[in-house]
Specification:
Helix 3 links the parallel strand 4 and strand 5. By secondary structure, the chain is of the alpha/beta class. It has a 7-stranded mixed sheet with strand order 3-2-1-4-5-7-6. It is built from 5 helices and 7 strands; from the N terminus they run βαβαββαβααββ. It is globular and about 40 Å long.
Amino acid sequence: IAALAITPGSRVADLGAGGGYFTWYLADAVGPQGKVFAVEIDETALDIITKGIKARSSTNVIPIRAEPGNAKLPEPVNLVFSCDTYHHMTDRVAYFQKLALSLTTNGRVAILDFHPHGFFSGLLGHGTAKEDVRREMEAAGYRHEGDFNVVDSQHFQVFARKQS
């Protein structure tokens, strides 16, 4: 999270938030004036996040019930953060082309996903090659901004909207 240099007051979408592991770190980063949209298609995961909001008396996390092809973000965000979700998505180029409309002018997309090798990610299909993510994101209208090497089993890339 620190590597993303999120400024207080930012609006961030935690795409594929699951039970909210990163949601709470993102909420700390944006501070009380910012917003984190915990975007999830799974109702059980959203229930866990909603309980977390109540338990923490959080005012800056908003759960969003998304659809597989639509994040349903209610306003533009500065950052879309996605951890271990990319490989579950279908028609990723079209999805991220549409998602660009929900980014601010200088909005970024951060994608963490498993390398497609090893037992879990390779055999079970829970991963996407770093090069495939980059190629698909560029096809969707983004430019590669950088990489972070934080976990051996995963790649972490950041993309920005191409300016016309």
